[in-house]
Design brief:
single chain; alpha/beta; Rossmann fold; five-stranded parallel β-sheet; 8 helices
Length: 158
């Protein structure tokens, strides 16, 4: 059992221009002040596969790329399973990928709350129905979305 509840940061990485790092770096201190241990896959996934190695394998050794991707999926879902919740940013790069939607579907199935920041030009109307069905709460600014996340001491114990 962790000393404080953890929250996982889901959202585009592979299709995001900055690898998904910028918004996570901005949100992390806020969630930390709320009492959470923040789980950032931009940091943790590099322990499974180096991003450069992953990109090279995708171009040069697809069988190896698939094995690395399988390892990342298993690693991330194991991390999520131990979290009190997930904070997700759904933006245009997210719509081009699959990992984020797999993660929030896993959450739905396992009763892990998903707090969403919908950062799309047309707002919530661009989010696929399946994804909307996996969200516990949503808002269209990160400030509003963060306000929907309960303080860590009000979350289920993990």
């Amino acid at each position: 059992m962790r000393s404080k509840p953890a929250i996982y940061l889901a959202g585009a990485m592979e299709k995001a221009a900055d690898g998904g790092k910028g918004w996570r770096e901005e949100i992390t201190p806020i969630l930390t002040r709320m009492g959470y241990l923040v789980v950032d896959p931009c940091i943790t996934e590099s322990t499974v596969a180096d991003p450069v190695e992953l990109a090279e394998a995708k171009c040069n050794d697809f069988a190896r790329y698939k094995r690395l991707a399988e390892d990342i999926v298993t690693f991330d879902l194991d991390l999520i399973e131990g979290c009190a919740g997930v904070f997700v940013r759904i933006d245009t790069p997210t719509l081009k990928g699959a990992g984020t939607f797999g993660e929030i579907t896993f959450c739905r199935r396992n009763d892990i709350p998903v707090y969403a920041w919908i950062d799309l030009p047309e707002g919530k109307y661009e989010v696929p129905g399946w994804a909307m069905g996996c969200l516990t709460t949503y808002a269209e600014t990160h400030e509003e979305a963060l306000a929907l996340v309960p303080p860590a001491h009000h979350t289920r114990g993990i």
